Give the backbone structure.
Amino acid sequence: CVAWNACPADLHIEHLTERVQTGRGGLVAVVGGRGAGKSSFLGALAARLPNAIHIVCPQNPQPDDIRDRILQQTRPDASQAESADSMRLVLLDDAHLLARPVLGGLRPFEEIVSLAKGTDLWVVAIDAVLWPLLNRGLDVRPVFDEVRVIQPWTEEQLGLLLQERS
């Protein structure tokens, strides 16, 4: 894991951390362009909340595979035994891979959304290119409790990143 650089996305991380700590579940979309830092954002959130379930969608993901991965990571251990009733945080990276621009192509994404309904907090990273497809295709009903947009890095932030990694 690489070091996290301070950036405007920190406000989103603070907000979502508070949301977990206050027990507010729901479904949150983190939207950003390719290379905007969505995966790093989820990694930073997982580092703050160590009991988070962090899953990266594989190519051609199936909802059952994601469900199985969540169950595998939910095994209670001694530290979780006392907080068995607490809310889970599920971080799903590359969730846009669940949607395809074909007839019926939103069905896998809708299955994951159905799985996400409940008391847990789900944060799903979605590429900005597919966001309009999901937004239009699912706008019949409110799907996301919040949409957080990751802004592109400024030249100054990129310069700091290069300095720290060189």
